[in-house]
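User: structure tokens for this one?
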Amino acid sequence: MNAAQSAPGALPALAVEGLTASLRLGGTWYDAVRDVSFQIAEGETLALVGESGCGKSLTAMAIMGLLPDKIGRMSAGTVTAGERRISGLTEKQMEKIRGDAVGMIFQEPMSSLNPVLRVGFQIAESLIYHRDMSRRAASKRALELMELVRIPAAAQRFRAYPHEFSGGMRQRVMIALALACSPRVLIADEPTTALDVTVQAQVLDLLRGLQDEHGLGILLITHNLGVVASNAQRVMVMYGGDVVESAPVGAFFANPQHPYSAALMSAMPRVDRATEDLNPIPGQVPSLQEMPAGCRYQGRCPLRVAKCAERPPLVAVSEGPHHLARCWVKAPPPGEGA
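Assistant:
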């Protein structure tokens, strides 16, 4: 089932409304992610893109309730998985949600898997905890999951340790672990980082197949626009913790509206363009202490005007009601200009 096939009026697999996440630096709290809202339908993939430091992983950590105590907090907003609101729950309550209603694949499987526990046990442990299965039943299901994610000789490798697997196979173990309890939502945070192109394609193909089979809603966090083009139905671009553009994938690639989105496209290598035609984005994402109060991209933007000192709203552009951008120049609110 894909997004287009979702029943009319069906609840989204994941709904995030007005999420703001803050980090404490030097005794001061800074909003590192500001007012992020989106929905993901069952069977739909939403890609969240942007440079490192733009707030992608922090958004996922806030959704999962994994912000570190004392230095991180979700300071505003709500998160709902299906019918259940999961924001504002205690840590003990969130432990019942993670891996059950919402699964997550982390960036680096070697640091996410316990190096001293066998991989089969790590998958089975989730079923014992969330589904109250016996060890025998959980182990049987864990083996089925290893076979589902196409780990060769799964029965022989069930008792292997993470270091005995390649990077691609460890990522498959992470996918099996994330899917163990049949979640409605899967957050995939850079699931193909550090994998070669062939293994990357295999992992993404596996996720697509599992999504088609189980109707998963997927939040795909990546900086790779090629992965977005071939795997997502919608894309959301973040910069400095703000959503600066949101659009259907086709409309986004045909006509990106925010200057940052256009800059990302110009910096992306393409087979039909010479490498000397690449245009790297000058400068870098500012630190939280130096982040401008208005448009957070203004320090690197060639279209900057005086009004950029104010934060622009996220509004629909002329391309259609589902294509939104946050820019005083390219997407001014009705009746206003730069």
